[in-house]
Amino acid sequence: MSAHQKMELKCPRCDNKSETSVWVSINVTIDPDAKEALLNGKINVFRCGHCNLEEPLNTDLLYHDMQNRFCVQFYHFNLIKEKQFLDMFNEDAEQQLDMPKVPFDNYMEHIHIVFSMAELVRYVLFRDNLARRKGSINNGQLVCFCCGSNIRKGDNYYCAARRRHIKGDAGEDSDCIKDATSSLQVCTGCLTKAASGGIEFSNLAIPLLHVEKEELHNFAKRRIDTKIDLELPGKSRDLCSFCAGEIRVGDQYTRLTMGEEVEGGSGIRSVSEYTFAVLCKACSDNYMAWT
Ligand SMILES: [Zn+2]
Ligand SMILES: [Zn+2]
Ligand SMILES: [Zn+2]
Fold first, then answer.
1. Where would a tag sit more exposed on the chain, N or C end, judged by fewer CB atoms within 10 A?
2. Residue 171 Cα, ligand 3 centroid: separation in angstroms?
3. Portion of the chain with pLDDT greater than 90, in percent
4. Segment 220-227 long-range contacts (CB within 8 Å, at least 24 positions apart)
C-alpha cells in the first residue's frame, strides 16, 4: 500500500504554514501516478505557498514494485549514528522486518537501502531498464522485425532504439534515462536487403518514423560496403533534429540511435552505437507512439 498524509508544515524561510503531502511508502504497482511524481522530483518536497521556497523533506521512504519484485528504502544519512537504527539490521545489512515469511517470495527480505532520494530514483531506473531488457529477451523478442526469424546466439543484429532523457548540466553521458525502447531490429540477411532498397516490417511493436527507416537504409549501405567508414559523429543534444528548437537543461528529449549488437552466452553486448537524431519533447510527443 502507498501511505501518505497531508501535514501543515512551517516554512523555514518565511515561517508561514503550507499543506504538504508526506509519503512514507509508495507501491508503484498500485499507484503508478506516485511513481511518475517521484521520477519528476515531486515526492516529499516542501513547497511554500507564500514565498515559493522548495525544499526536500528528507522523510524516510519505502519504494515497492510488486511486478518487478523489488523494494528500495531511503533513509536519512544522519540515522547511521543511531543505535536504534543500526539494530534494525543484521550483520549483512539486511533489514529485519516484522512480517510473516512468504515462501518463494522473499524479495521483501532484501530491501535495497539508499541514503539519498537521487540514488533512490537512479536505482529505480536501473531496475526498470533491467526488467525491460530481461523481459524482452525472455519473451523471445529477439527476432528479426522484418522476416520474423529468430536471432540466434552469437549472431550480430542491428537495431534502432529510442531513449528519453532529461538534459542535465553535466556531460550528456550523465543525463538521466527516463525510458527506453527498441523500435526496430533486423537480422544480417535483412540488413543486406535493406542496403539495396526498402524492406517491409511485419512485426513492429510501435509505428516506425520515416527517419528510422531511412537511417536503417543508410546504415545498411555503410555496413555492407565496408569501404565506407562506419564511424559517424554523434548528434548534439542541444538542438532538436526536427524543429531545430533549443533543448535546455532540465528539458526532456529523445535520442534515436542505430547500433549493432550480438547475443553472446552471458547476455547482449553492444558492438557499436551512434545517435542519428535528437528530438525535443514537443516533437517526440507529436511524432512518436510509445508502448
Ligand atoms: Zn515560505
Ligand atoms: Zn530478418
Ligand atoms: Zn522539436
1. C
2. 21
3. 49
4. 220/158, 220/191, 220/192, 220/194, 220/195, 221/195, 223/158, 223/191, 223/195, 223/260, 224/191, 224/192, 224/195, 225/195
The ligand placed nearest to the CA atom of residue 278 is: 3
Q: Is residue 244 part of a domain?
A: yes
Please tell me whether residues 52 and 167 are part of one structural domain: no
Q: What is the mean pLDDT of residues 244-272?
A: 88
**Position 140 pLDDT exceeds 60:** no
Total Cβ atoms within 10 A of residue 204: 11
If asked whether residues 34 and 162 sit together in one domain, one would say no
Domain containing 202 equals 143-287
Distance 222 CA to ligand 2 centre (A): 18
Pairing of β 61-65 and β 17-27: parallel
For ligand 1, the distance from its centroid to the CA atom of residue 9, given in whole angstroms, is: 10
Nearest bound ligand to the CA of residue 12: 1
What pLDDT score does 18 carry?
A: 95
> Do 151 and 36 fall within a single domain?
no
Adjacent-strand bridge partners of 71: 64
CA separation for the pair 58, 115 (Å, rounded): 10
Q: What's the CA-to-centroid distance between 37 and ligand 3, angstroms?
A: 24
Which pLDDT band holds residue 291 (cuts at 50, 70, 90)? Answer: very low
* Cα(161)–Cα(44) distance, integer angstroms: 33
- Cα 183 to averaged position of ligand 3 atoms, centre (Å): 19
Q: How far is the CA of 12 from the centre of ligand 1 (A)?
A: 7
Of the ligands numbered here, which is closest to the C-alpha atom of 15?
Answer: 1
